[in-house]
Amino acid sequence: MEPLRIALTVAKRFGKTRHHDIRVIVEGDAARLRIPSLPLRPELMITDQTTTCTGLEREPVVQRHSALRALAAAETRWVALPVWSALCEALGTPMREEDLRDVASNRPDLLAVSFDESGEERVHIISEAVRLRIRELDEATAHDQHRIVRRLSAESPAGSVERYVAQALPVHAALAGVMEEILADGGLLVRVDRYALLQGLAVAWPDGVPQGSIATDIHYSEREGIDPRSHGDWISWLHWAAVTRGLTEVASGLAASAVDMPWRTLWSRWRPHGTFGRIPSEVGKILFYDQLQAGVIGEEPVAAARKVLQWDTMGGPLDDRYLERAFRVTDGIEVTPPAPLQLHYENGEEVRIGGASGWVSAASAEVPEYPETSPPWTPRTGDPVVPAGAGRWLIGGHGGLYAVELQASTDPDVDMRARGPLLGPVTDMATWQCPEAALAADGPSRFWLEGIFGSGACRTVQESDLPAGVRNERARRFLTTVGMPSLPKEIPFMSTVALDEQGLVPVEWPADAPAPESEGPFYHLGFWTGGMVLLDGSSGAVLQDTNSGYSSEVLASSLLQFTTLLALYREYFTSLFSTEAEVRDARWSLREWAERIDPVTEDGDHWDDVLDGSLDDPNSH
User: How far apart are CA 107 and CA 56, in angstroms?
Assistant: First the structure.
């Protein structure tokens, strides 16, 4: 992974320097890695090293010593003798360390021996070309790699083998096809370094990590700049991800480890990364200190989360109306039903009308503060962070709310960031999974559409009221059974009429517009950025009359595809994503879904603007 990232990132950037004083030399094996072509003609120096490996397959030492195969299978350049011995055992040819020492001393032309900073003896194959050739001659299979994973996982956490586990176990698991086993075991996750885990994810899923697992959280944590120097700090973040996603066993395994975690998550009402669409009972964005308060109800310490009911165009509350929810600080259980709240200030004092029953703020209840503790670092400066008792903090943000408890830590690197990754993220995100209901063969159901647009949104037309000009059978069936959603303001760039009230009104194609490709007749469905949205009665296609400012005439091949696309866009538009990376990934996933659902979206200039986000702001058109 790293040579590719260096070629694409470092060499490309250096190649753009004004004076071209820096050159990057890349050594590559053309049979193994295709060096990408780069702009500005960077220089590539290619050295033919095939002579190093000539006849290697006939080399007696390679045939006689399977230990070389085990050494070549290692995922670090230098390998301690206990690690080499463990790899030999995993691959079915156990050898003692002293025997391996003899192998190394007898072949100084192939193997180098040195000592690490702790004085432990280590070995490596001198030529990388030779190491790769040995791998090619007898490559470790997925089954072999799984045996290595099992052997390393069974090792007691100590010594050089454990250091190798921290560096290499995820890549071995990826090559074995069992990366999910590592991710599902908190006891194993604590044993591997963050960077090694990222490398394992990149190898396991070269086309992007799948949506909906803790791998998703690890990817987006990297995109958010969560790169702690402290391993314990990283395990605290992994524990947060597991709690947020509801992975109880993983969270328990992480918390039960001997790792020095500086903080742990008590509970989380944060939106899991990579979630598309709205989530029932979602807390919503908690961006201001007015939205997050510590207090008591009775004698129970609680956190009050206040959901803004309507945001203004500048990203702040439009008025003083909220929906207040109260969660017990210790375990996050909601202690009162959500309640409307009006909140304003008089002479600097908070004045409440309504809200959670029995709520008393921490200040009014004289709950002591604990200034001797500091909250853990968060990726976004300015997110509300509120003390909630000894060593406990409430943290809000774009994803919602969670509570943490600080733990004693002796690690000097806690809260220190590595300020990376300098080469960009190690992992990529795969295309998100399209909701199954959007891909149903018989079209979108009324149940699914109204789950997105609201109960009663779909308006049907009686069969007897359908104009004779609507000759397309699929359109007739959709209009009389599912119904066209009435969308006065749910979509920022378009609206539809209530067909049960207005009916299908025939309209003429505008005289000043280019002649339509369809024969009509045409019926009014709504508006798209100022132009009319029309149903072609003969083909069943949905068109726009080009008064919208767009030249592409066809919006969708059918009413079924049109309403499906609108529903998916509405889900995207109302999703409370917690990171900008998720917004981007959801948008390009939506584009791929749209092209799959209706190929006309691929070439339509109107859908181009929708799917690149240009029409998300209702004031932009």
Answer: 14
